[in-house]
Amino acid sequence: MNKIEVKHLAKRFKFAKKPLLNEVNFNLEENEIYGLFGENGAGKSTLMSMIADYNRPSAGQVLFDGQEVHENDEALSEIYFMNQDDMYTKKDKVSQIFSFVESMYQDYDVDLQAKLVKEFKLDINQKLNKLSTGYQSIVKIIISLCVPCKFILLDEPTLGLDARNREIFQSNLIETYSENPRTFVISTHIIDEIDRIISHVLLLQDGVIKMNGSIDEVSSKSYSVSGPAEDVNSYIDGVKVLDEEQLGRYKTVHFMDQLPDREVPASVDIEKMKLQKLLVYIMDRGEL
């Protein structure tokens, strides 16, 4: 079973008042889909780049099956990092870029590539620098889904994509994952668009991992309760509320706890708290 271990990882920049990352610890397990969340500047891109050995940490280590990834060609051949930097020659045609990547990977999925080119309506005879930001992202998405790596790191993969192409990306990610399971790590600000496909949540804040759990664990104890204020207050009495909204007599409260062991008033509705609501609360308040 393949696994990536991130141990005591830190990143400090010269002249910065505090480290960007400090004592970051977590594992990436085989065949999971992780959502990596955090505010702008939290260090998500830097963290992913260090996992893929694009960037060296100030302290700590990244292990693939117990071996350091740094300058480890065998380990790095199983890790693919899609980011928003200029990964390919801008003046090359898309077809040339695809041919180059295919030559680098023995089991590159050319059939899936052809399918995605058609669905995204991508003109492979265009030069990369002539494409819009969205279509440059699409080129990188196609490559990311077709490389035969066991760990795929996607940094803001839907940057510049319209709703149609975001849907194509998500549906194809689910389909290819079902047919050929491997680990995906998706860093994005559009939380509510990927919460239905991820299996695990990582929240990076203040240089550390603030939340690390399966989506089932998180959602099993995160609730939103709505109804007339007096009935809601009566039902949740004794529960630590994270946040609440009220409009007239109608009230909604959000909490991360077990449901009260009492009868639910007929006027009260209970649903799982949206992941975006929970993460935004933690990012705003810095705590649960």
Please provide a written account of the structure:
The model has no long low-confidence stretch (mean pLDDT 92). The strands form 3 sheets. Strands 6-7-8-3-9-10 form a 6-stranded mixed beta sheet, with helices on both faces. A 4-stranded antiparallel beta sheet has the order 2-1-4-5, covered by helices on one side. The chain has a 4-stranded antiparallel beta sheet with strand order 12-13-11-14. A hairpin with a 2-residue loop joins strand 4 (59-64) and strand 5 (67-68). The protein is an alpha/beta fold. It is built from 10 helices and 14 strands. The longest helix has 17 residues, at 163-179. The chain folds into 2 domains: 3-214, P-loop containing nucleotide triphosphate hydrolases (Rossmann fold); 221-285. The chain has helices spanning 44-51, 73-76, 94-104, 110-120, 133-146, 163-179, 191-194, 215-220, 229-235, 275-285; strands at residues 3-11, 21-29, 33-37, 59-64, 67-68, 79-82, 151-155, 183-187, 200-205, 208-214, 222-228, 241-247, 250-256, 269-272. GO terms for molecular function: ATP binding; ATP hydrolysis activity. Residues 4-231 form the ABC transporter domain. This is ABC transporter domain-containing protein.
Which descriptors apply to this entry?
single chain; alpha/beta; 288 residues; 2 domains; 29% strand; Rossmann fold; 32% helix
Task: Give the SSE map.
Layout (H helix, E strand, L loop, with lengths): L2 E9 L9 E9 L3 E5 L6 H8 L7 E6 L2 E2 L4 H4 L2 E4 L11 H11 L5 H11 L12 H14 L4 E5 L7 H17 L3 E5 L3 H4 L5 E6 L2 E7 H6 L1 E7 H7 L5 E7 L2 E7 L12 E4 L2 H11 L3
Parallel strand pairs: 3-8, 3-9, 6-7, 7-8
Antiparallel strand pairs: 1-2, 1-4, 4-5, 9-10, 11-13, 11-14, 12-13
